[in-house]
């Protein structure tokens, strides 16, 4: 492999041996060793979470506003071509690696499929400890992944696949407490990264394809006791219940909350995305179906729903809108806006006003399609409600074609915002369309509850699918697009003060650095698999690093497999297997 030094090869081998040894241990934490870096590890306070040091990456997007931005500029447009891997480590797992490396005081924490958390020396890759939680017999989550961990004080918080929230000791990985969130045999499971705010640990639930009733729940960070639980689907008599039929469909109405929300410490408000309705066909649950396919604004202290914005009522396309909007203040027509910017799965980029989000209202500013979208005929300029073409809406016993496909214009991989360029960057899948046919389906706890058959095809004349796009948030206009060829793009975004955007996500296994202003590719490196995890940046002893995990699985693998079948060209192999990659300029 080009550019890998002998020292790095030795580190890789040592990490791989440690991986194999610890993987064979019983399900628990097993310490490998400790050093001065681990001994210096300091508690992660609320103030550090709100105001992280430039060299740390303490939360999945570094800051509560979801920007995915690093203020480090040692790696920049002038020297990024000299970026080389300094260490790699195998995770010992296959399937979807979708968690960012979290770094505090030179200690790195990563979560992987298989209900595993690993702590390492961020500068060398030496493994401190590894925690594995037993996978119960009979559990079958549709998405075998974990999107990260949370840090607070001396603990690491992890959402395990069997619907338990676990608190671990940051120093040795031992289990401090475990809280049952729901019953996994009824289709509930966890893939979300926890969020620590207001002294609580928040998680959202997965399982929308199994007819769960989605919720966000908060737990006391010290004891693990549940503090509040807010359901996405209102019960009869609750606000929003009038948007559901007068039957029991609300009990299995969906609205999973499987991507971590963003947070505003000044108002103590959470911004959390919600998923599709269940079953998929909206004509089986007539009405707008609040609060599916929405952004919910929750009071972090109580869980109370303060306001919401629904991107498309009565979802019938499986367009989960779980990705939370980024908290970005922007200008529009010369006036400042306390903004929310959301790259929605339905193929539109939404600009919203959060000034009165705590008082029952999210204002609509504007929306534009960023990929081929033929379902919305127009958007109401006052409310933001889309006018849906009925011929493009599937139903029970009805087949409809629609663009984008069920995987959306952008799926869960997060966008990033650079305050210097005033641009938001995101991965897109353009020119992909779907054909969906609905059918009646009976609810059986824990079983698939979609009631639909799907197909995927390319729009006529399409010459590419994957894209990286950049939009100016003050003008609401696209600045540049980089077409990535006939590949899906599932690459989360990292942007830096060095004028760079880092992302992977394409089937050629490349991890890339783009010029943030122009979209030019300045550097690329072939990893072991496809990068579908967010990258992070940190500094140890005055040296800046870029870290990312590579390992394809779940939806990215499924969509790419379908694309391989419909595109006549020969796709490169996309092997599975998780590896942590850490780069620096040499």
Detailed description of the structure:
With 586 residues, the protein is mainly beta. 7% of the residues lie in helices and 37% in strands. The protein contains four helices and 43 strands. The strands form twelve sheets. A five-stranded antiparallel β-sheet has the order 1-8-7-6-5, covered by helices on one side. Strands 2-37-38-39-40 form a five-stranded mixed β-sheet, with no helix packed on it. Strands 3-43-42-41 form a four-stranded antiparallel β-sheet. It is globular, with a radius of gyration of 22 Å. The model is unreliable at 1-27 (pLDDT under 50).
- Spatial sequence of strands, sheet with the most strands: 1-8-7-6-5
Q: What radius of gyration results from the CA coordinates?
A: 22 Å
What structural class do you assign from the helix and strand content? Answer: mainly beta
Low-confidence stretches: 1-27
Helix content: under 10%
Number of helix segments? 4
Largest sheet at a glance? 5 strands, antiparallel
Quick description:
This protein has 586 residues and is mainly beta. The chain has 4 helices and 43 strands.
Topology, element by element:
Blueprint: H1 6-23, E1 29-31, H2 36-39, H3 46-50, E2 69-70, E3 83-90, E4 96-97, E5 102-104, E6 107-112, E7 116-121, E8 127-132, E9 145-146, E10 149-152, E11 155-160, E12 164-169, E13 175-180, E14 195-197, E15 200-204, E16 215-220, E17 226-231, E18 262-264, E19 269-273, E20 294-299, E21 305-310, E22 326-327, E23 330-332, E24 335-337, E25 339-343, E26 348-353, E27 363-369, E28 376-379, E29 386-388, E30 399-402, E31 416-418, E32 423-429, E33 432-438, E34 452-458, E35 466-472, E36 477-483, E37 494-496, E38 500-503, E39 510-515, E40 521-526, E41 536-540, E42 543-550, H4 554-566, E43 579-585
Parallel strand pairs: 2-37, 4-9
Antiparallel strand pairs: 1-8, 3-43, 5-6, 6-7, 7-8, 10-11, 11-12, 12-13, 14-15, 15-16, 16-17, 18-19, 19-20, 20-21, 22-25, 23-24, 25-26, 26-27, 28-29, 30-33, 31-32, 32-35, 33-34, 35-36, 37-38, 38-39, 39-40, 41-42, 42-43
């Amino acid at each position: 492999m080009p550019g890998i030094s002998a020292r790095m090869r030795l580190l890789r081998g040592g990490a791989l041996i440690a991986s194999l040894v610890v993987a064979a241990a019983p399900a628990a934490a097993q310490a490998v060793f400790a050093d001065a870096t681990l001994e210096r590890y300091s508690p992660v306070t609320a103030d550090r979470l709100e105001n992280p040091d430039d060299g740390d990456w303490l939360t999945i997007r570094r800051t509560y506003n979801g920007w995915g931005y690093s203020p480090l500029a040692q790696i920049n447009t002038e020297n990024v071509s000299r970026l080389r891997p300094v260490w790699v480590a195998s995770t010992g797992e296959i399937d979807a690696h979708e968690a960012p490396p979290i770094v505090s005081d030179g200690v790195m924490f990563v979560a992987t499929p298989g209900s595993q958390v690993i702590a390492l020396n961020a500068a060398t890759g030496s493994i401190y400890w590894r925690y594995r939680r037993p996978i119960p017999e009979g559990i079958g989550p549709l998405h075998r992944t974990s999107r990260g961990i949370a840090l607070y004080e001396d603990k690491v918080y992890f959402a395990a696949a069997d619907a338990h929230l676990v608190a671990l000791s940051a120093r040795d990985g031992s289990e401090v407490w475990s809280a049952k969130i729901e019953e996994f045999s009824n289709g509930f499971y966890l893939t979300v990264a926890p969020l620590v705010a207001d002294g609580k640990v928040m998680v959202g639930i997965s399982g929308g394809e199994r007819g769960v009733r989605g919720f966000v729940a908060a737990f006391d960070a010290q004891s693990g006791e549940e503090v509040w639980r807010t359901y996405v689907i209102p019960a009869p008599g609750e606000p929003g219940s009038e948007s559901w039929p007068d039957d029991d469909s609300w009990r299995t109405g969906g609205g999973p909350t499987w991507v971590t929300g963003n947070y505003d410490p000044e108002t103590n408000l959470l911004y959390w995305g919600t998923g599709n309705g269940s079953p998929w066909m909206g004509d089986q649950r007539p009405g707008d179906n609040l609060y599916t396919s929405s952004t919910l604004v929750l009071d972090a202290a109580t869980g109370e729903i303060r306001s919401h914005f629904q991107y498309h009522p009565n979802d019938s396309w499986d367009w989960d809108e779980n990705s939370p909007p980024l908290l970005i203040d922007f200008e529009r027509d010369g006036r400042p806006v306390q903004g929310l910017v959301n790259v929605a799965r339905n193929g539109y980029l939404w600009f919203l006003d959060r000034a009165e989000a705590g008082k029952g209202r999210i204002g609509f500013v504007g929306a534009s399609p960023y990929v081929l979208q033929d379902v919305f005929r127009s958007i109401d300029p006052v409310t933001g409600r889309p006018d849906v073409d009925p011929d493009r809406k599937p139903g029970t016993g009805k087949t409809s074609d629609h663009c984008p496909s069920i995987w959306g214009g952008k799926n869960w991989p997060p966008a990033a915002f650079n305050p210097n360029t005033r641009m938001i960057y995101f991965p897109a899948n353009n020119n992909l369309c779907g054909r969906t046919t609905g059918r009646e389906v009976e609810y059986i706890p824990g079983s698939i509850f979609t009631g639909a058959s799907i197909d995927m095809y390319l729009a006529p004349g399409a010459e590419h699918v994957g894209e990286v796009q950049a939009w100016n948030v003050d003008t609401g206009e696209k600045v540049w697009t980089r077409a990535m060829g006939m590949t899906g793009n599932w690459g989360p975004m990292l942007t830096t003060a060095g004028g760079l955007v880092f992302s992977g996500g394409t089937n050629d296994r490349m991890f890339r650095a783009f010029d943030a202003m122009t979209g030019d590719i300045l550097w690329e490196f072939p990893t072991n698999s496809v990068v579908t995890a967010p990258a992070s940046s940190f500094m140890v002893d005055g040296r800046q690093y870029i870290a990312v995990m590579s390992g394809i699985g779940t939806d990215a693998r499924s969509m790419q497999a379908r694309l391989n079948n419909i595109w006549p060209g020969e796709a490169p192999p996309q092997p599975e297997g998780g590896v942590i990659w850490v780069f620096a300029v040499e």
